[in-house]
Amino acid sequence: MNKKTIFADCLNKTLNFAVSSYSLKEKLDCLVKATADAVEGGASLILLDTSGSQLIPAISSKLPKYYLQKGLLDRFRSLDEIDSGKPVIVNDIDTDERIQYRDLARKARITAIAGAAVYIGGNPAGSLRAYLRDNRVFQDEDINFIQRMAELASLMIGQHRTYPFEKRGAGNEVTPSIIGQIRETVFAHPSEAEFAGLLDFYNIEWVYEPRSFILHQEGNRVTEMFSPDFYLPALDLYVELTTLKQSLITYKNRKIRRLRELHPEIKIILLNKNNYDRLLAKYGAGPLGQSRAHGIRKILYTVDQIKDRVDELAVQISADYSNKCPVLLGVQRGFICFMADLIRKISVPIDMDFMAINRYRKDSQSKLSITKDTDLDLTGRHVLLIEDIVDTGMTLSSILEYLKGRHPASLEVCTLLNRKVRRLVEVDIRYWGFDIPDEFVVGYGLDYREEYRNLPFIGVPIVLDETIDSG
User: I need a surface site. Which of 239, 352, 448, 458 has the fewest CB within 10 A?
Assistant: First the structure.
């Protein structure tokens, strides 16, 4: 069977599959595999991240794992089929400066790459790329075929009413991204799946083990590699989880130190068992999330210390918002004590309003959404968001993004407690009361499983992992 017949047969079969009742992932899996088979090489559907600046391998066929784990591609340094709207052929990877990770391509015996853009509703979504090995080259009929398959990929995605990026619809719901719909990740540990669910709730895009870093090699032989668990493209941050006991994580710390030595530009954090359990407990998940507090271990800030700091913040806010009549906006319940004391000390006119959001629940497919919106029109107003505590920044970042869409004249944050050590998403905080360590805190409106909100001071509770048999 000649190439023209093979391509025509493949297109017809893929088109029939495109209009079937199969899921989007099943359709795209079939399309990518069919592309690889027809060109007698490899194929990959690579999609733009939420920033539109990086390309993520979403579905691949007949490409080695080490090549897929080379890392994300820089859209603006890569082949330009997405921006030009025209198919691109590179028949010699050694002579084209747009080829990223050239050494890994050589290792995979890839010598030629061709790509055609996938567009959805006029917006760039990514590219369908094909790869040839052992000095084979693409002909015109190959690129015509790849372009037709890319158009079919656009058709499939369009039929499922999805978008290249997360988009908010009516009622604050979020339409799942392409990657969110077709991702089928096999996690090495349940904690990774739980962390991915938490990221999904906050609409934080993630890629699982996208890159393997060489840490040591002897000549051409690699002796040690490191593949961080997650990469968060929008934050340009790698996250490594470990639920091992503290005494057993030395080797991971060593790997991260080595990675930072070799790649100082890489941002990476390690969440060890204690940090991870505390993070999950904030959302009522994990072993500590099911435990109760057993009294107060120590007082972190006394009544007088809180009063003095609130007075100082009120003076600063009054000076900054003179003649502006700001809207002080509280979210959820923990801010109540702080806001009540703060507004009584602010010496300029203010308005107040409140919002509520849904809460993360393990094993739920829900996304962060607004369950009670503001009553005031925030357009052209100076909004000061009042928080009890900011730690990971995930909730605050999502709320700020939503409030920006309300077109305020200015938008700032005031939090009583700032726990930088847990920060995953960087957020700009204009005013804060205290920088606190990585410990649970309760009192002055803050709770642990709804207890201790009414304490007049801020303390550290005694929390035991009740899933552990103490006998």
Answer: 352
Closest CA to 391 of 279, 299, 285: 279
What CATH class has 296-463?
alpha beta
Asked if residues 421 and 402 have their Cβ atoms less than 8 Å apart, the reply is no
Q: Does domain 185-271 have CATH number 3.40.1130?
A: no
Write out the two tokens for 383. Answer: 């909004």
Q: CA quadruple 289, 294, 299, 304: dihedral positive or negative?
A: positive
As a whole number of angstroms, the distance between CA 227 and CA 140 comes to 38
3-state DSSP helix/strand/coil % of the chain, to nearest 5: 35, 30, 35
Question: In this predicted model, what pLDDT tens digit does every residue of 281-331 receive, in sequence order?
Answer: 665 555 555 556 667 888 999 999 999 999 999 999 999 999 999 999 998
**For 182-217, how does the pLDDT look when each residue is reduced to its tens digit (9 = 90+)?**
777 888 888 888 888 888 888 788 899 989 999 998
Rounded Cα distance between 272 and 191, Å, is: 11
CATH architecture of the domain with range 3-171: 2-Layer Sandwich (3.30)
Instruction: Please give the Cα distance from 368 to 174 (Å, whole number).
Output: 9
Closest CA to 400 of 414, 419, 418: 414
| Other CB atoms within 10 A of residue 260 CB | 13
Phi, psi angles (nearest 5°) of residue 160: -90, 10
Give the Cα separation of 176 and 102 in Å (integer): 33
Residue intervals of the chain classified under CATH 3.40.960 are 185-271
Contact 172, 370 (CB under 8 A): yes
- Quote the DSSP letter at residue 91: S
3-state SS assignment for residue 30: helix
> For the chain, where do the domains classified as CATH 3.30.450.40 start and end?
3-171
Q: Which of 229, 277, 388, 391 is catalytic?
A: 391
308 is catalytic: no
Expressed in angstroms, the distance from the first to the final Cα of the chain is 72
Q: Distances from the Cα of 113 to the Cαs of 41, 107, 127, 149, 273, in angstroms?
A: 10, 15, 12, 15, 43
